[in-house]
From TrEMBL:
Keywords, ordered alphabetically: Membrane, Transmembrane, Transmembrane helix
Pfam family membership, one: DUF4381
Name the UniProt record assigns to this protein: DUF4381 domain-containing protein
Organism: Rhodanobacter terrae
Keyword Transmembrane: yes
High-level lineage: Bacteria, Pseudomonadati, Pseudomonadota, Gammaproteobacteria, Lysobacterales
Length: 177
């Protein structure tokens, strides 16, 4: 019997010819996946919101400084000329301007309505009375009043009033009265 012929190393094996395994190409970095687009959008929105809040905060700080500098100018002017009615008038106008930013009717209020507007700041009754006395002091002929206490009361009220979060909300029935 004859033995099967031995295959030589040079002859190919029967069947398909297999090649080495090829890996797919590396994924491209562009365009990014949708999740990265969403993240970029959220970061952009967060940056815009932070910028807006920062500018709002800076504007409020600048306004606070300007109002307190105006208060200091009134005090310096009073120290120079001693005009108590001008000091009382200046303090009263400054209080009204700041109050008007939170209550549009503050410029026209008198008596109890003005007291309620001033009372929206958490100040004690003595401070409130000193601030209300300014309204009367404007129209009195150069009578003496405790200008130092009035300036301290105005400064205390203004520091609180220049913080919008400190304003107490009014009841709806008082808002239209």
């Amino acid at each position: 019997m004859m033995a099967p012929p031995a295959q030589s190393a040079a002859t190919p094996a029967p069947g398909p010819s297999l090649r080495d395994i090829h890996l797919p190409p590396e994924p491209s970095w562009w365009p990014p996946a949708p999740g990265w687009w969403v993240l970029a959008g959220l970061l952009l929105l967060a940056g815009l919101a932070a910028s807006w809040l920062w500018r709002k905060h800076r504007r409020a700080q600048h306004q606070r400084r300007q109002v307190l500098l105006e208060l200091d100018r009134l005090v310096i002017q009073h120290q120079r000329d001693g005009d108590q009615s001008a000091l009382a008038s200046g303090l009263h106008q400054l209080l009204r301007r700041v109050a008007r930013k939170h209550d549009a009717l503050a410029a026209q209020q008198r008596g109890e309505a003005w007291r309620q507007t001033l009372a929206r700041m958490p100040v004690d009754a003595a401070t409130l009375d000193r601030l209300l006395a300014l309204d009367q002091q404007i129209y009195r002929p150069s009578s003496s009043f405790d200008h130092a206490a009035a300036v301290i009361a105005a400064r205390q009220w203004l520091r609180l009033a220049l913080n919008p979060a400190a304003w107490k909300r009014t009841a709806p029935e008082h808002a239209h009265a």
